[in-house]
Amino acid sequence: MDTRIELRVDGEQRSLTVDTRTTLLDALRERLGVTTPKKGCDHGQCGSCTVLLDGRRATTCLALAVAHAGSEITTAAGLADGEELHPVARAFLEHDGLQCGYCTPGQICSAVGMLDEAEAGWPSSVTEHGEGGAALDESELDDEEIRERMSGNLCRCGAYANIVTAIREAANGSGR
């Protein structure tokens, strides 16, 4: 059964008709021509398809498009301000946080979402709680914390050391 939906993708309102079984990733790539999110594993295990969905990071290969009608979707391309790269994307470039680049859009979206989560005080499984159970402050993101929070995004090339360095730099004063 086909359903008409509206999505706001990278700031642009888009309308499309999709089969109710269509994933958000396939709707973006195949129906709207938005190829920034990549199809990696198609099972939610690699993170290549990660976008910000209503401000939160999400793997689009596991999301049905109809379930997110009316949602705001931001891809790595949509994070830029015109020709000005987002500070996280700029840090990835400055620290060689990529090799082949296939996973990079998902890594960048995940990093932006992760930094927002840390800023909001959301702990991870490795967060050390201070007195009274206080959650992590964004400025306290160490390498272990970043690795844990980014563990849903895989890089086949193994650029992890530089990815962690880029995210740490972006967290410590990027003006996101």
From TrEMBL:
Domain 2Fe-2S ferredoxin-type per the UniProt entry, residue ranges: 3-79
Keywords assigned by UniProt, alphabetized: 2Fe-2S, Iron, Iron-sulfur, Metal-binding, Oxidoreductase
Gene Ontology MF terms in the entry: 2 iron, 2 sulfur cluster binding; metal ion binding; oxidoreductase activity, acting on the aldehyde or oxo group of donors
Record pathway: Alkaloid degradation; nicotine degradation
One Pfam family it belongs to: Fer2_2
UniProt-listed InterPro entries: 2Fe-2S-bd (IPR002888), 2Fe-2S-bd_dom_sf (IPR036884), 2Fe-2S_ferredoxin-like_sf (IPR036010), 2Fe-2S_ferredoxin-type (IPR001041), 2Fe2S_fd_BS (IPR006058), Aldehyde_Oxdr_Iron-Sulfur (IPR052914), Beta-grasp_dom_sf (IPR012675)
Tree of life domain: Bacteria
Protein name: Xanthine dehydrogenase YagT iron-sulfur-binding subunit
Species per Swiss-Prot/TrEMBL record: Halopolyspora algeriensis
Lineage of the organism: Bacteria, Bacillati, Actinomycetota, Actinomycetes, Actinomycetes incertae sedis
